[in-house]
Automatic annotation (TrEMBL):
It is found in: Cell outer membrane. GO terms for biological process: cell division. The keyword Cell division applies. CDD domains: OmpA_C-like. InterPro entries: Bact_OuterMem_StrucFunc, OMP_bac, OmpA-like, OMPA-like_CS, OmpA-like_sf, Pal, Pal_lipo_C. The lineage of its organism: Bacteria, Pseudomonadati, Pseudomonadota, Alphaproteobacteria, Rhodobacterales. The gene is pal. The Tol-Pal system is composed of five core proteins: the inner membrane proteins TolA, TolQ and TolR, the periplasmic protein TolB and the outer membrane protein Pal. They form a network linking the inner and outer membranes and the peptidoglycan layer. It comes from Polymorphum gilvum (strain LMG 25793 / CGMCC 1.9160 / SL003B-26A1). PANTHER family: LIPOPROTEIN YIAD-RELATED (PTHR30329:SF21), STATOR ELEMENT OF FLAGELLAR MOTOR COMPLEX (PTHR30329). Residues 1-27 form the signal peptide. This is Peptidoglycan-associated protein.
Amino acid sequence: MLNTGMMARGARIAAIIGLTLALAACAQTKPDGLDGNVTPGSGQDFVVNVGDRVFFAEDQSTLSTQARATLDKQAQWLNLYSRYTITLEGHADERGTREYNIALGARRANSARDYLVSRGVAASRIRTISYGKERPVAVCNDDSCWSQNRRAVTVLNNAGS
């Protein structure tokens, strides 16, 4: 009798644990860590659904087809949400002198700015800055890192307001 009661109690506990695990599995976030609750027009919407950066080939400031596609989406979004001003940050990988990389980052930021302006974003809403090689996102001594650092990043200046 005691043994049957303990077995029933064990079965209830096992059922509760199973139900909890099933609910937890249903409530998991997306594999990329995004929760899917992005508010349209928010800074998170811009980063997640539009993309805030474009990448460049080595020693280049020419926009690739992929970069232009991302900037097209940015222009569309920025024209829809005109309350935002932006800063375009130009970056370079760690090779080269500081002066060379500052100039290269400036060319990359200006290239992205000029493209956004050509797509209808008011130039008065855009500021550019070059960080050169001072703010890498990846640090290693091969192209897997260098390619991530050769970029222009669009930062929403007033996303928190």
